[in-house]
Design a protein that fits this description.
The complex is a heterodimer of chains A (199) and B (274). Chain A is an alpha+beta fold and 199 residues long. Chain A is built from four helices and 13 strands. Chain A folds into two domains: 59 residues, Gyrase A, domain 2 (2-Layer Sandwich), CATH 3.30.1360.40; 123 residues, Beta Barrel (Cyclophilin), CATH 2.40.100. In chain A, the strands form three sheets. A seven-stranded mixed beta sheet of chain A has the order 5-13-6-7-10-9-12, covered by helices on one side. In chain A, a hairpin with a 4-residue loop joins strand 1 and strand 2. Chain A is elongated, with a radius of gyration of 18 Å. Chain A starts with a strand and ends with a strand. With 274 residues, chain B is mainly beta. In chain B, the strands form four sheets. Chain B has a seven-stranded mixed beta sheet. A five-stranded antiparallel beta sheet of chain B has the order 2-3-8-5-6, with helices on one face. Chain B has a four-stranded antiparallel beta sheet with strand order 7-4-1-9, with no helix packed on it. In chain B, strand 14 and strand 15 form a beta hairpin. The termini of chain B are far apart. The model of chain B has no long low-confidence stretch (mean pLDDT 91). The chains are: A alpha+beta (199), B mainly beta (274). The interface between A and B is large, with 39 and 38 residues.
Chain lengths: 199, 274
């Protein structure tokens, strides 16, 4: 594990295998000077009070990563596989539409991190055969609940937004709702399985 | 309803006018941008002039915002650092300072829309928070804070033009490190926003090449300067996304971020090591 200053009021933890376990361990320490702990693909950003920068740096020496096995949330998301890009994805990866759906359903995903928009979770664990780059031209409007894939990840669009991922289907699950005590359904570390409900 | 009636009308919403406060904290790990005023100093100042705490929500505008009081109001504008007492029916136009991008209107009691995730800021990336303001709309104002009004007006702020920067986490990806940025003058490009300010392109010789144009996404902070593959530095402002895929060469000192936020397109900026 390495950490380096990220300006005068943040640190970046890197060279770690499991950013979520480091983020969880740091959260448990509950330091009042720490404002944000942001796990990403290979790093954890720690934003803190400027006056506490050195102190938080020393705190990082003492973090015990906490593996997310205990109390991990498991979410099952019902999907109707009728996405606009399903046929195109099948052609690009050289599989039938049924095989694409089967492979998307067959694995368990884990939320590696959130970003892009509120509640947008990067679901790691996508089948190797389904890994294709983003669309060359993003859509200006992707509806909330769209289930999609791009690169190493699957996702469910939490709200209507622009988007360049390949649309496989849709769900009625509420991924993001600021009225709930936990606004995001898919928080870092949550495991996800998709379940086909149609067509 | 805690407030009896909408206290002010928006006669003209002007350009890029939104409700802002200190922003949303503790939700970045869910992908929620902080948002909040892009020039926190100006927002804080306007609030202090009317006796509010700095947490009170203000109106942030680029120009051309015109309001009308529907009840007696004490307001302050950051562009001229002045306080005004408005009677019912009085109108006021709010602009950015002549040499800046953003002006703030504070109202004694604060703009009292419903907070979302602890903040009244409109998030211009995701739309979170109060909806976009419309001409003809009305806004509620909170209860009088029962504080004393400061006797003095605000001293003119010294607008420096040299921005202090700290090394970023990926400074060592560039052959000259920080000096690739500090050695010259930069021009602010035309697409300025609450999200970031793009600068003219420069010669950034990468020591470390990545296989793709981007790198694995990592967290962003306000003031982070990302360098795009074409060599354009982008300075992240208050409404930046929570993660980004370009290497961060340096970070603007929080005390100087307002210099960048207030820079108009076509103006020049210089950076020096903090």
């Amino acid at each position: 594990m390495l950490y380096r200053p990220y300006g005068p009021s943040a640190w970046l933890i890197e060279d770690i295998a499991d950013p979520i376990s480091w983020a969880t361990g740091l959260e448990k320490m509950n330091h009042p000077g720490v404002h944000e702990i942001v796990p990403a693909k290979e790093t954890v950003l720690v934003i803190c009070e400027r006056a506490a920068h050195a102190e938080v740096g020393r705190l990082l020496e003492q973090v015990n990563p906490i593996a997310h096995h205990d109390g991990v949330r498991e979410v099952i998301i019902d999907v109707t596989y009728d996405g606009d890009d399903l046929a195109d994805v099948a052609e690009r990866v050289g599989l039938s539409i049924e095989a694409v759906i089967h492979r998307h359903l067959a694995v368990q995903y884990t939320v590696e991190f959130c970003g892009f928009s509120p509640g947008f979770a990067y679901l790691g664990g996508l089948d190797d055969e389904l890994r294709i780059p983003r669309r060359s031209t993003p859509r200006t409007r992707v509806p909330a609940g769209s289930v999609a894939i791009a690169a190493d990840y699957s996702c469910v669009y939490p709200s209507q937004s622009p988007g360049g991922w390949h649309l496989l289907g849709r769900t009625t699950a509420e991924i993001w709702n600021v009225g709930r005590s936990e606004p995001a359904l898919l928080t870092p570390g949550t495991t996800v399985r998709f379940k086909q409900v149609g067509p | 309803m805690r407030y009896p009636a909408a206290a002010l009308s928006i006669l003209d919403v002007g350009w890029s006018t939104t409700i802002q406060d200190c922003g949303r904290v503790r939700f970045a790990s869910l992908g929620v941008p902080r948002a909040g005023a892009v020039d926190r100093g100006a927002h804080d100042l306007a609030n202090r002039l009317v006796g509010n705490t700095i947490e009170a929500a203000t109106l942030e505008t680029n120009r051309g915002l015109v309001i009308e009081a529907r009840q007696p109001l004490i307001v302050a504008t950051s562009a001229d650092g002045r306080r005004h007492t408005l009677r019912v029916g009085d109108q006021l136009r709010i602009d950015a300072p002549t040499d800046g991008m953003w002006g703030y209107l504070a109202v004694r009691g604060g703009i009292d829309v419903e907070p979302v995730l602890g903040s009244r800021s409109h998030d211009t990336l995701s739309g979170l928070g109060p909806p976009l303001l419309l001409t003809g709309g009305r806004l509620p104002v909170g209860n009088d804070p029962r504080t004393d009004l400061p006797a003095d007006l605000a001293p003119p702020r010294s607008a420096g033009s040299v921005v202090r920067v700290w090394p970023g986490p990926r400074a060592d990806w560039f052959r000259l490190g920080l000096s690739a940025l500090t050695g010259r003058t930069w021009i602010v490009q035309s697409d300025v926003s609450r999200v970031g300010v793009r600068l003219s392109s420069g010669a950034f010789e990468r020591v470390r090449e990545t296989t793709s144009a981007t790198m694995p996404s990592e967290g962003l902070v306000e003031g982070a300067i990302q360098v795009t593959p074409s060599g354009e530095p982008i300075v992240m402002l208050a409404n930046h996304p929570t993660t980004g895929g370009y290497p961060v060469i340096c970070v603007v000192d929080p005390d100087d971020i307002a210099i960048v936020a207030q820079s108009k397109p076509g103006t020049t900026l210089r950076f020096r090591p903090a």
